[in-house]
Amino acid sequence: MNTKVVLSVVLCFIFTINADFVEDYCWRDYDGVIPSDAFKAGIDRDAKPIYIGQVLFGDKLIPGKIHHGTNEIHIEYDVTAHRINETIKILCTKHPEHFKWIKTEKQNVFDLGKENNLFEGGFEKGVTTYIGRIWSFDELTVGKVICWPTHCIPLSTVEKDQYHYHSTFEILTYDSNGKEGINTSETTTKALVKERLVAPKRSLSPAWYIFLVIGTAVLIIIVIILIRRR
Predict the structure, then answer these.
(1) How many domains, the chain?
(2) Within a domain: residue 200?
(3) Which residues cross the membrane (predicted)?
(4) Do 105 and 35 fall into the same domain?
């Protein structure tokens, strides 16, 4: 057997395994086609998913919402609603169970952050940008929560090309050790009633990981033997 061919197969196998361990979430380029692992954050009035997007806006990264079947993102910046159809990224994850929505109010965000890892979804100099959501205009919609070192402003969302502020909302948190389960928050309960969302994929079992590790080791040994015989 050609040694180079075997080595290529082994490397391909190893990279496939590593993808399961390393890639927990990422921001993928978005051109109108929803990736299979895009994170479902909300639901529109037609019972279609709403996703979390991010766009380069000047020297800032502004998060917003992406509707299923569109090639644009809706954001709010400087008390103005914007629609943008370029330089968009969409939040994707193989482990949606690592994300959790927690109900809060703008004045309680800092306290919530002491015990939870609030997910940062953008960048603006001098502030921290989090992701929030709320039921508004018959949609479980997504927006941003901006916090200065001393205070936070309400969740801002865009509906019908107008921006809106919400003092009470759910904020997105991240925990790499999070367990898959049912989020019983009010907004999630409403969403489940409105649409039976597809259950997130379960993580591979420990036995499967052991099999992959052993398989990798065997293939590496085969390659070493073949190289020494040359």
Answers:
(1) 2
(2) no
(3) 207-227
(4) yes
* Burial zone of 222 (CB within 10 Å; 0-12 exposed, 13-18 middle, 19+ buried): middle
Note down the domain range covering 106.
26-194
Per-residue pLDDT of 173-182, as tens digits, reads 999 887 765 4
13 and 43 housed in the same domain: no
Same domain flag for 10 and 31:
no
- What confidence score (pLDDT) does residue 208 get? 65
Is the pLDDT at 228 greater than 70? The verdict is yes
Fill in the amino acid letter for 38.
Answer: A
Q: How far is CA 183 from CA 158, 186, 214, in A?
A: 25, 9, 36
Kindly indicate the confidence band of residue 223, based on its pLDDT and cuts at 50, 70 and 90: confident
Q: Which pLDDT belongs to residue 187?
A: 54
- Tell me the pLDDT tens digit for each residue of 21-47: 346 899 999 999 999 999 999 999 999
Does some domain include residue 61?
A: yes
Does one domain contain both 151 and 115?
Answer: yes
